[in-house]
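Re: that backbone. Tokens:
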């Protein structure tokens, strides 16, 4: 937590720290909730695959896999959004390079 004396001497710095701390806490909460759900769904899907009625439960397993996929995408987007709000989002240099090439090609009509 932020020490009260820090805010007395540098309020702008303190505001940035409070925003960063809130973002980290949000990301921790999102990751715990999301990854716990993904883990639980995966365990259920695995149990369904290994159970006696596995050959009849293809749609249930497919639904579980879609839920895992959706939850993973949602949590990724939420965590990235919170990190971006405080200027701390990861940007893959290879992806950025590909986007730059695409933008350059689009602007020249190639």
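Recovered sequence:
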């Amino acid at each position: 937590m932020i020490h009260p004396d820090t805010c007395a001497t540098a309020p702008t710095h303190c505001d940035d720290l409070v925003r960063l701390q809130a973002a980290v806490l949000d990301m921790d909460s999102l990751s715990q909730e999301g990854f716990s759900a993904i883990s639980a769904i995966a365990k259920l899907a695995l149990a369904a695959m290994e159970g006696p009625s596995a050959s009849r439960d293809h749609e249930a397993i497919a639904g579980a896999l879609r839920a895992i996929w959706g939850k993973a995408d949602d949590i990724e987007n939420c965590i990235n959004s919170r990190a971006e709000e405080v200027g701390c989002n990861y940007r893959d240099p290879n992806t950025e390079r590909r986007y730059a090439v695409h933008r350059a090609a689009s602007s020249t009509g190639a």
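The chain has one domain: 9-108. DSSP finds four helices and no strands in the chain.
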